[in-house]
Amino acid sequence: MITPGGKSRFFVHALSALAVLLVSACGFANGDNSQPTVPATDIAGPTRQADDGAASTGRRVNIGVESAIVWGEGEYGVVLVHGAAYSAASWERLGNAAAQSGIVAIAVENATHDAAIAAVDYLKQELGATATALLGASAGGAAVLEVGATNEDSVDQLILLSATGTVENLGDFPKLFIASEGEGIAEQVRRMAHLAPGNRNDAVILPGDAHAQAIFDTDQGERLIMIIIERLNQGRSANLQPPVVRATSPHRQKTRAH
Length: 258
Prior knowledge:
By secondary structure, the protein is an alpha/beta fold. It has helices spanning 4-29, 92-100, 113-125, 140-150, 186-195, 221-240; strands spanning 48-49, 55-56, 59-63, 66-71, 76-81, 103-108, 131-137, 157-161, 175-180, 201-206. The protein is built from six helices and ten strands, in the order αβββββαβαβαββαβα. The strands form two sheets. The protein has an eight-stranded mixed β-sheet, sandwiched between helices. It is globular, with a radius of gyration of 27 Å.
């Protein structure tokens, strides 16, 4: 039996416990769960949610002062630079497709020239890539074009997705320009492929009007992935094939006088 005084103490304890629960719940809602901070470098873990709602199964790494996501491993790499409305995790499908093809893909969080260069360095110095391609979508294409114009040795090939810009100052490396027919830049993309230096430049115009990475979510998404992976595999094959050993002609061999 609870006495009147006991009832008062009971309600005080109950209210105290409720207050503790409310404070804890607020802490978790604000992201303060008092868990230890895990370093961002090379975190291998569960799926992470990006700011734009895209999730990634890749591993998070630090590339200098920049953040990036890596999929797969291999001697041929590709740097992925997203458009303004996206994050690194938005390359999830392409990153996994590259990994399945034996290509290591790294997507930067900041769509800048410096981030792209840092990603190239990370692929080569930390992951052992011997050659790298650069792929820029929409606004990310500006960073890729800048790298192609100022750091030609860092680029094995260049791919632009729904991006335009100056191409006459690029190197002779292969280039692929992709856009949707209805997004308003198809003719400019075709012209860029014609004006760019080198003889290994192509333009692909897809049906529809989706822009940049939004194309992955249309009925052209699988085709777009196949086009990009095929192009990357061409670069991979060209760079990783064994050197040709020329046999010495018997007529040119020196003979010893007896």
